[in-house]
Specification:
single chain, 4-stranded parallel β-sheet, 4 iron, 4 sulfur cluster binding, Cobalt-precorrin-4 Transmethylase, domain 1
Length: 276
């Protein structure tokens, strides 16, 4: 049995940056916390907690100290509230998410009706929505796009981890909603690279293991794409591997989401290699 790693996998620049910023603020006395999980990987969040970076779900949960904005970003009111509460603030928002936020804000200010192509409940999408004046339309399907009302000016942005192919498909169904359509493809390069590499590898193996948080949108998307090509399992850790998955399997492919730490990828890789 052969084991292959995707050409592009694991931590992206934005995640590495967020983790670095969080670790720089570590405080054993519990006065340094992220607002929500800094990335969608429970194992990394737990490790940061051990290092002195806690987590709160809302600013009122913090009486003092440093609040770290998660990589997915937040709306403009959060910055104002943190200042009003006298909290120090470290912004670990991914630069690509920042671009999507600022683009949505600019479109809103210029009088465009903003459509965000992404998952309605994802924290990144919620942050973009708030930067768009809280008046944008969020769609994640062709059906949703078809339901968008016609308007004078239409501006389109995307969740940074959204499927490039699906974004293109949805946009095609939005083009006839206005005579003035501005499209800003805010999907990040790392997302494109990981998706392309995963699909390429999935077409060459018998089974794909996609590693990452079950709450990670980009990891879930990788698993969905790979599942179209071969047998695929989405796992968070090596403990989830099951012997029966490997019966009659000759080639295993491994990829991982942008928020999956290297040590977890290595554990899964070694476990698979030891089966050969």
């Amino acid at each position: 049995m052969e084991v292959f790693l995707a050409e592009s996998l694991g931590f992206c620049y934005g995640v590495k940056r967020a983790i670095k910023l969080a670790r720089e603020q570590a405080a054993p006395d519990g006065t340094s916390c992220t607002l929500g999980p800094i990335i969608h990987n429970p194992q990394m969040v737990s490790r940061l907690a051990e290092e002195g970076v806690g987590m709160v779900n809302a600013l009122p949960d913090m009486e003092k100290g440093t609040v770290i904005i998660r990589s997915h970003g937040v709306g403009p009111l959060v910055y104002d509230e943190a200042k009003e509460r006298g909290l120090s603030l470290v912004d670990a928002t991914c630069p690509h998410v920042k671009k999507a936020q600022s683009t949505a804000h600019e479109l809103f200010q210029e009088g465009y009706s903003v459509v965000i192509v992404g998952e309605k409940l994802h924290p990144e999408v919620r942050s973009i929505f708030e930067w768009a004046g809280g008046d944008a339309v969020i769609v994640d399907s062709v059906e949703g796009a078809e339901a968008v009302a016609p308007c004078a000016r239409l501006g389109i942005v995307a969740q940074t981890t959204f499927s490039g192919a699906k974004f293109k498909e949805i946009v095609l169904h939005l083009l006839d909603k206005s005579n003035d359509v501005r499209i800003v493809r805010t999907i990040c390069t790392a997302t494109d690279q990981r998706q392309e590499a995963a699909i390429k590898l999935a077409r060459q193996v018998d089974l794909m293991l996609v590693i990452g948080g079950k709450n990670s949108a980009n990891t879930t998307r990788l698993a969905q794409l790979c599942a179209k090509e071969c047998q695929t399992y989405h796992i968070e850790t090596v403990a989830e591997l099951q012997d029966e998955w490997f019966d009659k399997i000759k080639k295993i492919g491994i990829t991982a989401g942008a928020s999956t730490p290297d040590w977890i990828i290595k554990e899964v890789y070694q476990k698979c290699k030891n089966r050969t």
